Amino acid sequence: MLAAAFVRAGLEDIETRTPIGTARYASVDALVEIEVKGTPLADRLSAEVVERILAECRQILDEYATASGTLELPIRAVLIAGRKA
Question: Strand 71-76 and strand 20-25: pairing?
Fold first, then answer.
C-alpha cells in the first residue's frame, strides 16, 4: 500500500525492503530517558507518571535485557526507494 502511494506520486521502479535490526540501549532506564523524557510532552508528565512508565517498561522489556543489563530490542524499518517517472 505504501509503495502504491509512491506510484501515485509519480515515482517508478519502486523498491521496498523491511530489514530487521537491533536497537541497543544501556538499560531500560536509558530507553525511557531517551524516548519519554526527550519528547516535547515530557514537561507535561509528572514524576509519578514517568515512574509508572518506567516500572511498566522494566516489566514488559525484561525479556530483551541481557545478562549485563543492557537492552537489545528487535526493530524493523520500512525502506522505500524510487525515481521520478
Answer: antiparallel
Which run of H or of E encompasses 82?
A: strand 79-84
Crossing angle (nearest 10°) for helices 28-35 and 47-60: 130
CA dihedral 50, 55, 60, 61 (to 10 degrees): 80
Read off the pTM: 0.71
Query: What does 14-47 look like in DSSP terms, one character per residue?
Result: EEEE--EEEEEES-HHHHHHHHTTTSGGGGGS-H
Which structural domain range is residue 47 located in? 2-84
What does the block give as the cell for 26?
A: 544501556
State the Cα–Cα distance between residues 81 and 6, nearest whole angstrom: 9
54-66 pLDDT tens trace: 999 999 999 999 9
